[in-house]
Specification:
Mean pLDDT: 94
Number of helices: 13
Order of helices and strands: EHEHEHEHEHEEHEHHHHHHH
Length: 293
């Protein structure tokens, strides 16, 4: 299995280094930026390719580590060459293999989505963290089991998912990785309204957020839940809503409704009926207000 990369960004750096560290032969990198390809090749002790044709010929597997919008167009260019027996992979969380590599089976080749459920922020060090990361795999039926076995053989955690859930899967990842920052932004804004400077608010929130994230990592979601909803403290929830704008109240209530499921799992003996009714009433009122507006 000789692996080549089209694209030399953070994901290409990370996967290439991880593969090399686990004994996989990496042929090298092709990129529109020769500087990026050279940096990736130097980091992974592999080769720089100035022609995609040469990289394709030297590789059994090509990873398209490119922005989502570029993957299909580059694939169509590469598929003009002989790709019989080749395995193409992309690392997009949102795109299915068929969307990225349309009709690849017609060329006697196979295509896969191989997506790390992980935010790659540091291209020089992230490869060290992949052993704890889940990879989702989706694509051509012909070699799906082979790809799963190969990835698991280099110590990666792999979950096969069907193409039709790719968007939902990516939405889940975005909520946990990106949209949680929206909640932190809201918390920071509320603290500044309490007299904190933005820097003070951010500094104050870090140990709160990181501590809870660490509890989640060590103990799981249910065990990490604390706060007024978990305690069944309806009065505090009601008071919270009084300090929020209508849009913020709706967000708070929707999140509280999701957390209610977790609270019930943590305390199955506790009666959350009054809170559930209160949240439902708030959502109904919000819907009526929108309809009137």
């Amino acid at each position: 299995m000789r692996i080549g990369f089209i694209g030399a960004g953070k994901v290409g750096f990370t996967l290439g280094k991880y593969f090399r560290e686990h004994g996989i032969e990496v042929t090298g990198y092709y990129s529109r930026s020769i500087q990026s390809a050279s940096e990736a090749a130097e980091f992974t002790a592999t080769n720089v390719y100035t022609r995609r044709d040469d990289l394709l010929a030297a590789s059994d597997v090509l990873f398209f580590t490119l922005p989502d919008k570029e993957i299909e167009s580059v694939y169509r260019q590469v598929s003009q060459l002989s790709i019989r027996g080749k395995i193409f992979c992309h690392c997009s969380g949102a795109l299915s293999a068929q969307e990225a590599f349309p009709n690849i089976d017609d060329f006697s080749a196979t295509g896969f989505s191989v997506h790390p459920l992980f935010a790659v922020s540091d291209k020089y060090n992230a490869y060290r963290e992949l052993v704890d990361v889940f990879f989702t795999l989706e694509g051509s039926t012909e070699k799906l089991a082979f790809m799963q076995t190969w990835l698991q053989g280099i110590d990666l955690q792999v979950r096969i998912i069907p193409a039709e859930v790719k968007v939902k899967y990516h939405c889940a990842a975005a909520l946990a990785s990106n949209y949680v920052l929206g909640l932190l932004q809201l918390s920071q804004n509320l603290l500044t309204e309490c007299g904190f400077s933005p820097d003070e608010a951010e500094k104050a929130l870090k140990p709160l957020f990181c501590g809870n994230a660490e509890h989640f990592r060590e103990c799981g979601l249910t065990a990490s839940l604390t706060g007024p909803l978990e305690r069944g403290d309806l009065s505090t929830l009601q008071h919270h809503l009084t300090c929020l704008t209508p849009a913020q109240r709706q967000l708070y209530v929707l999140l509280a409704k999701e957390l209610l499921q977790t609270a019930k799992e943590k305390h199955p003996q506790r009666n959350y009926t009054s809170i559930a009714r209160f949240l439902e009433a708030q959502l109904v009122n919000a819907s009526l207000s929108c309809a009137k507006g």
